[in-house]
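Forwarding the complex inputs:
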Amino acid sequence: MSLETKRIIIAILGSTFLISLLFVQSREVTRQREEAGLIPPHIAVPATSKACVDCHRQNNAGIIDHWKGSKHARKGVGCADCHQADSRDADAFNHYGVVIAAVVTPRDCGRCHPQIAAEFGRSHHAAAGNILASLDNFLAETVEGSRVPFNPHSETPGRAIAVVNGMASAQIGCQQCHGSRVGLVSSTGGILTVADLQPDADGRPTNLDAVGKIVRDQNGRPKLAPSTWPNTGMGRINLDGSLGSCSACHSRHDFSARRARQPENCGKCHLGPDHPQKEIYEESKHGVAYRDLREEMNLDADSWVLGKDYSQAPTCATCHMSGNVRNGGRITHDPGERISWTNRPPVSLAMDTDINHKVVTEKDPAKRRELVVDTWEAKRARMKEACSTCHTADYVNNFYQQYDDFVVLYNEKFGKPGTAIMEALLAQGLITKTQFDEEIEWQWYYVWHHQGRRARHGASMMAPDYAHWHGMFEVAEEFYQRFIPSALEIVAHAEKEGRTEAAAAARKVIDDILARPEHAWDKLAPTPPAAGG
Amino acid sequence: MEHNETAEASGAEMRRRGFLARLSSVAMVTGLVAGYGAFAAIIARYLYPARPQAKGWLYVTDVAGLKPGDSVVFRTPQGATAAIARQGAGVEASDFIALSSTCPHLGCQVHWEQQNDRFFCPCHNGTFDPSGKATGGPPFEAGQSLPRYPLKVEGGLLYIEVPLEQLAGGGACTLEKPGGPPGPGHDPCLYARGRARV
Amino acid sequence: MTRLGDWLYERLPISAEQLRELTNEPVPNHLKRWWFALGGTPAYLFAIQIVTGILLAVYYQPSPATAYESVRYITQEAAFGWYVRSVHKWGATMMIAAVVLHQMRVFFTGAYRKPREVNWFVGMTLLLTTLVTGFTGYSLVYEQLSFWGATVAANISDGVPVVGGFAKEMLLGGETYNPRTLSRFFVLHAAVLPATIVGLIALHIAIVRVQGVTELHFRDEERGKPDHFKFFPEHLYTELIIGLTLMVLLSALATILPAALGPKADPLTTPEIIKPEWYFYVAFRWLKLFSATTAILSMGFVVFVMFTWPFVDAWIRRNTRYQDASVWIGIAGALSIIALTVWEAAVAH
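Prediction (whole assembly, three chains):
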């Protein structure tokens, strides 16, 4: 082989080497692009929380793991930032050199999320703790349990039970969704709550007597009453006077927005015989689409605006809270802002709210006009912004017509008549003031609290079965088969006992209702079906 | 006659051979430089620090919690301190200042002297005014100031941009396995502080 | 230029003439045959290993706590880190393959015979050193196979009579794999062994130069043609061609079959299948066929025979009529080694 040949070969090989390295370069570029998405973001533990993380990583590794996956961690918000407390706070204590409180309330979250805390604070969610003075509460505390502890019936082998806590059903049942009244164990044997501590505008207790009674262990840690904590009920009444718990929806410690967007999150509480929103959603077309397409719905995205980041299907959050392209992506933490009927009471009310965000029940139109700050129409318009992202105007408006018709039907045929009958029986003294001690009270409860609410919710969220078979059909059945016969029986019984006036007054109310054409179907001649079907 | 022709012919051949030789030499050198040059470029890229040191925005405090004139000390993940003060009543990032505690002279840590209203560096007696400008010592002679960290305000919250990587080691508790039951006095991390290292 | 030349000559009394004389040795014609370039091949690959090894050492951390993470960093994050690591890994394989092929060339051309026995010893030492370098290198990655391979190898060396226990403890820095073992491997792999190899290569080449290369004549060569050619530029071009071909080959292998990252070493969990690198398959298989002591002693014996082959061969040629015995024994030996290697490669256990 001549020298020239060798040189040429070297030249060719050199170029081949260069080409192979260009290929290497292109591989490197591809690799870097792939790696950019795969490398998890750096989590730097903030210096103030380093001791917390180091110790709790050994003891409660799950807490640290959850936190590390949260957006808080990525932004440098650590344990100390949320759990920090002022030494004057009722539940504050010194934990290895740092003053903290175990319970984090919306007041704490509101330090960094003030607008959300304010919206949430005025919403019906935050008021969920009001159940503590309601009918439902009576059921749980008295009918199912006992407001005062009572003695056991007999022995339980293997366990020493001295006394029975009659509030247990309320505490682990109702209050776990609605929220407990957080309490600290008192040295006098009771529980100290916000009512005893009387916190000021900064959440610090003003009643120092009560503060002095707080039971503390040898490290100064106050004892949270087991009946009230753990609790992340939506309307928890906190020691610092704030209402609610942000971790109810944004589970700690990863405070996942992703989770809050999913219907299963709301479904922890919004389900069951009296308000089966979760089941209704699953039946509806919205739920069917969600189940099919949830992988593509960008649940992890920072921005989750309907019409921009996803449009496959709405979830609970989509319609009731999240932003959409029509409202500029604005999120609200007050779901009531978009609700035009409140279907909670025995008779649905139009959601005209006053300056305190409470429903206006005033009947006089002039007075009403003065009080109403946000009308039901405005609320409906907000909801329609969400609907209209996927549906045309006629579609949306006609649906609302169907919905309105249904609610009105329920109101006028069952809600108002039933209320009138119960009021009459009570006014005439034909039933006792005690709730749930007579059968008719249970029956009426079913009509409006269970079947009636189910029906209205089913209609509101496009679940035909819940509107009809699991709804209005059962309303009608309960009403005609049990409620009305019970009322008539009570009246008959009263007449037999000689309480003629009371019985007559009550009977008149019942008869007037049953004489109405919509109720007189069993006595009238069969009406031919309307022309056209 | 034959000789002359052969001589002429071989003369041309010689020139052609010379040209070919030069061409092949040039080609060879080009090929070698191209190939090994690319290799050297790859090596250089490999050695250069791979990507800028990971930096991120970390939460400091809510704006409402820092009054004008107040300051708060922030520890970066790498262990440096930054003194963050609010100078103006507004809520823009420009109303705040974050001064690094690292002296620009030779890197010692400065501290704030309340009584003298200045930052003081113990290594060579450098001094700085509250805005970080050097007022005495070697940094003053070099016309230096305390370095600043970028700040931003978002949603009513103050963030600082700092390097995120933490060097391994140090920390309150580095036990591989927890020892003893948790709780006051039985904390595994407290145990570790008392024990001699293996 | 001559002023500079004079200035240098006053301080370093070596003339340009002498330098040219020294370096531009006449290379016998038979070295134009490509399979005589098998000595330069491992040398070039060694140079590549030094370069890539130094690059890897910039990011590698020789501590059990951080070694695997540093290798992961190189493989997944450092710019071209995967390429540097893959070239280093393939370079190791190719260097060992080239060394073995070179040794076989030397063996089958009888170039170990008198007066070249000493160089054969140097070459054998180079072979063993290269193999140990490969082994220590692989142990640094701190994958499962690194850890368990090192543990198994240490236990094997423990089986050597008399000095075995001592050797194991020196290798591991203790009785078992401990936090200081990796540092030992690293110092061996990155400093001691490469320096040894450099010294041995220098010695190997010096001996070749001092003794000169026998000028072989192949049957298909014309008589009367010049029977040697110049090192510069002809042989250098040959070496450059080989070098570039190897670079292209290494780059291709690095891109198509890059070095991967197995699971991190777990001292508490032994993987189902532990295998050393391919160049130890023959020994691994041999150890499975016999009891530990027998296998170790027999392997030691085989290595000893390989070392002293020049004398064995001389004895055979002197005292028997089989002049080509070496060739046949060599063929048998090579086939056996290949068979054992393939056998180990083919089966899981």
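The first helix of chain C runs from residue 2 to 11.
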